[in-house]
Amino acid sequence: MTPHEARSRFVETRVARLATSGPQGPHIVPITFAVEGETIVTAIDAKPKRGGPLRRIRNMEADPRVAVLVDGYDEDWTRLWWARADGHAVVVGSGPSRDHAVALLRARYPQYRDMPIDGPAVVVKVERWTGWRAAD
Amino acid sequence: MTPHEARSRFVETRVARLATSGPQGPHIVPITFAVEGETIVTAIDAKPKRGGPLRRIRNMEADPRVAVLVDGYDEDWTRLWWARADGHAVVVGSGPSRDHAVALLRARYPQYRDMPIDGPAVVVKVERWTGWRAAD
Question: Domain residues for A114?
């Protein structure tokens, strides 16, 4: 799969998974996201009510390297595919960059239009798009 | 979501994602898998033809900590859920433990019955099952 096609798969897919590294080992969580150019944005819906920042946020603040994955599963394994974006994440608590990320998310997901997004945004500068499909 | 329910979600789901950490940062890839007790097994279908072991294997041999995720996306966000297993992985190139893992995979996925599984098995001892669902 070409980098161009891998990026297209992100544009077409509604849910991805974000992997980070930290002192407790790798962490992985599903995310909603939007793609703009060579950037993937996501956000934390709600500030945690206790315990400080979420583990994914602590991880990215200490080590900004992230991997983001979309994939398609089908019982017909000739239809399997995945696409991955590797890059560096910036956690943005406020300001125009956060507002822009939130606007992109609200534009992509009608579900966000009626709910608050109170936590930080995460802006991933993608350095590499890779992918694979079984039918190649 | 209780640990018991998180584990049940793994048993019911056909594809997961495996996150590892390594010198190039976090890595993430979709996997087929089987659950037995407090263990998740997966395998590499084919030995890489060049370039040595896959990155996920090199990562686990250097740092056995892994995270495995299953999730359900739905445009009705009251139906979102995910479950995660955190544990330690052992890469098994041959022997009874590898054969047992392969047998579990072939039992779960008819697709594997007619294809070779030439690479190592990965046996994850799960230390923690966690999960979340929107409707909680």
Answer: 3-133
Predicted model pTM = 0.95
Where in chain B does DSSP place strands (E)?
16-22, 25-31, 34-36, 39-43, 65-72, 81-92, 121-133
**Interchain pair B75, A20: CB under 8 A:** no
A26-69 pLDDT, tens digit each: 999 999 999 999 999 999 887 666 677 889 999 999 999 999 99
Tell me if residue A128 falls in helix, strand or coil.
Answer: strand
Angstroms from A121 CA to nearest CA on chain B: 19
State ipTM: 0.94
Look up the CATH number of the domain holding residue A16.
Answer: 2.30.110.10
Question: Based on the structure, what is the number of domains in chain A?
Answer: 1
